[in-house]
Amino acid sequence: MPVAESIREVTGLVPEALPEDVLRSPEPLVLRGVVGQWPMVRAARESAAAAIAYLKRFDHRGMPVVATVAPPEAAGRVFYAEDISGFNFRREKIPLAVALDTLRKYLDDPAPPSIYVASTTIDTFLPGFRDENAIDFGARDPLASIWIGNRSRIPTHQDVPDNLACVVAGRRRVTLFPPDQLENLYIGPLDHTPAGQAVSLVDFHAPDHARFPKFAEAMRHARGAVLQPGDAVLIPSMWWHHMEGLDGFNVLVNYWWRQVPAWMDTPMNALMLAIMCVRDLPPAERAIWKDVFDHYVFDYDEAGVAGHIPEAARRVLSSPLDEARVRHLRTLLLQRLNR
Fold first, then answer.
1. Higher-confidence residue: 312 or 149?
2. DSSP assignment string, 267-301
3. Is the pLDDT of residue 1 over 70?
4. In CATH, what class is 5-257?
5. Structure confidence at residue 144 (pLDDT)
6. Can you tell me the distance from the alpha carbon of 40 to that of 229, in angstroms, rounded to the nearest whole number?
7. SS3 state at 260
8. What is the DSSP secondary structure assignment for residue 206, as one 8-state letter?
9. Measuring CA to CA, which residue among 111, 79, 116, 86 is closest to residue 203?
10. Rounded to an integer, what distance in angstroms lies between the CA atom of residue 227 and that of residue 237?
11. How far is the C-alpha of 143 from the C-alpha of 127, rounded, in Å?
12. Angle at which helices 96-105 and 48-56 cross, to 10°
């Protein structure tokens, strides 16, 4: 595993009063021990069996969870098949208790199948868990998810929201890269992905530098940490992250939120539309549209239209947009896409 520069650490924080400068940090941070007093963490420090028993207390025993299952030879790497046409895992819908019991069964197995219950909404599947294991985000209303599995390797990917990822059982190694390392990480297909986000094709346990020569440059910008139960990492929007569960039983609780209003759409949709509509234009036309995007998006200044469009008539050229204008724009876009 390549060695990365250490992520900056902060100590002495409590989940009841996370500072704004932490939650808005443009740089990643490790928050050592921030959720160390959670009952879930205390159970995990006792044993994996105690942590499993604690989780079972909140199992709603209703609809099943989705478990990602890969054979022992995958060594925990949730990834593509060799030719990238498919994947090296299957997904099964099973009761949460069955997933937990299966993980317990394989605790001491040196080469178990990989079992990974990913991104499961806590309030839906573990009602009451957050009452005992809480973080105060103030006015924010983040999406809270839980990730449960054994030793796993989740390839490098990025998310639009900011992310506070709390390790509550087992140890995790996290490796982060700044957003500008896109070219050096050899990202796979955008529309055919293991779990919804495009991922790096580099195997961190055995990087093929002949096939991926720029990865060495990415590692010169990497930041990493090994997180113990009770630690958390703040991953700002669009930072690339590689997550690795190091023990036979691992649980992560994470919170996603954006620094913009909830009614704003994801920029990934705009990227997909630009690929569809702009990327393959003749070069001269593409250059024109690059100038148009700069004018209306990347370098936009409402003062540029203030002299010739009355304020009440600017519609989507008003900045910033509001919910009503975005709703109108979404309706117009859907009409155009569906014609």
1. 149
2. HHHHHHHHHHHTTTS-HHHHHHHHHHHIIIIIT--
3. no
4. mainly beta
5. 98
6. 9
7. coil
8. S
9. 79
10. 20
11. 14
12. 170
pTM exceeds 0.90 for this model: yes
Q: What is the mean pLDDT of residues 82-107?
A: 96
Domain range list for the chain: 5-257, 267-337
Residue 131 parent element (H or E): helix 129-132
Burial of 308 (0-12, 13-18, 19+ CB in 10 A): exposed
Longest dimension (CA), the chain: 72
Interatomic CA distance for residues 195 and 145, integer angstroms? 15
Residue 194's alpha-carbon distances to 69, 113, 156, 191, 245, in angstroms, are 12, 17, 11, 10, 17
Inform me whether the pLDDT recorded for 78 exceeds 80: yes
Two tokens, residue 21 = 């400068």
Return the beta strands (E) in 178-239 as ranges.
223-227, 232-235
Kindly report the number of other CB atoms within 10 A of residue 74's CB atom: 17
Q: Report CA torsion sign: 282, 283, 288, 289.
A: positive
Q: Are 111 and 118 in contact (CB under 8 A)?
A: no
| Beta strands across the sheet bearing 223-227 | 5-6, 223-227, 172-177, 240-245, 152-157
Bond into 127 cis (ω within 30): no
Averaged confidence pLDDT in the chain:
95
Taking CA atoms, 202 is separated from 206, 241, 242, in Å, by: 8, 13, 11
272: tokens are 């997909």
